[in-house]
Design brief:
The chain has about 290 residues and is α+β, with helices and mostly antiparallel strands. The protein contains eight helices and twelve strands. The strands form three sheets. It has a seven-stranded mixed β-sheet with strand order 1-2-10-7-12-6-5. Bound molecules: fe (ii) ion.
């Protein structure tokens, strides 16, 4: 793959066709912000009052204390860099908010998500957390820079608030000192890096973008990233696997299965080849 270490900005596109999206960004592993196609985010269903009155039965336990959704929202609304709300606060968008996300269109990909196919055994795909809703507040940031687990692509759609996303291309992985067991997380604190401990991080080149409500960021598989919030934030993230990250996804799945179910890991290798070919044929017939 061509080196992406020197891209200095992320394209922002309006009116991008699905074909152009695949050709310009998915195939070449380049992030992009889509500024249209998520008009549903302006629905009155995504106001703080609506969420508090309709979903207060949802609860979250953080450090042994259980909070209702209203309490989580209050914490996020009063968050400051000095006194941050706990983050990430995530909910399963499909299970917990089915009225709003049940028919959420995968605005970038159409029907190409292999995670939704019956061909991909639930045993393998069940931990990929396909639709995650994040609540956050001013000063909140993802605790570590990481690439998304199992090598999925992500689409992040901003519903409320502004979110900075800081990204690094996959060819910069050596600068992040990933540990062997959790190799999608980096121990480097990118906001205050310890160059004595992680000297190679000096070479890392970030590319930053800010997401506004109604905008969607495509993060290709393997891109390191973290986020920072300026105000109350509501974001939905969707994981995606298609022909371009299939091998990466299955290789990551193999490593994970080898740790947790060593006797079954060989099945993943067979799955990668056999089911990968079936998907390719099926998708070629549709397109
Ligand atoms: Fe992520």
């Amino acid at each position: 793959m061509k080196s992406r270490a020197n891209i200095s900005k992320i394209d922002r596109c309006n009116g991008l066709s699905q074909k152009a999206f695949y050709n310009k960004y998915v195939k070449t592993s380049l992030p992009v912000v889509i500024t249209d196609k998520a008009e549903w985010t302006s629905s009155e269903k995504f106001t703080i009052d609506y969420l508090k009155s309709n979903y207060n039965h949802l609860s979250k336990t953080i450090d042994g204390k259980t909070y209702s959704l209203s309490e989580i929202i209050d914490l996020c609304q009063t968050s400051t860099p000095e006194n941050k709300a706990p983050y990430p606060n995530t909910y399963d968008a499909l299970r917990d908010f089915p009225e709003n996300f049940g028919d959420l269109p995968e605005i970038l990909y159409g029907k190409s998500n292999r995670l939704n196919s019956r061909l991909l055994s639930n045993f393998f795909a069940k931990h990929t957390n396909q639709h995650e809703l994040f609540f956050g507040g001013y000063g909140c940031s993802f605790p570590t820079v990481h690439f998304d687990w199992l090598g999925v692509h992500s689409q992040i759609t901003q519903i409320i608030g502004k979110k900075d996303v800081i990204l690094y291309s996959p060819d910069q992985t050596p600068y992040f000192y990933p540990d062997k067991r959790h190799h999608h997380h980096s121990p480097v604190n990118i906001l205050n890096p310890d160059y004595d401990k992680f000297p190679l991080f000096k070479n890392a080149k970030a590319v930053k973008t800010t997401l506004n409500p109604g905008e969607t960021l495509f993060i290709p598989a393997g891109w390191w990233h973290t986020t920072y919030m300026h105000d109350f934030n509501l974001t939905v993230a969707i994981s995606h696997v298609n022909s371009y990250n299939w091998n990466f996804f299955m290789d990551e799945l193999y490593l994970n299965t080898k740790i947790h179910y060593p006797k079954l890991a060989w099945m993943v290798k067979i799955y990668k080849v056999v089911v990968g070919k079936i998907f390719n044929v099926k998708e070629a017939l549709v397109n």
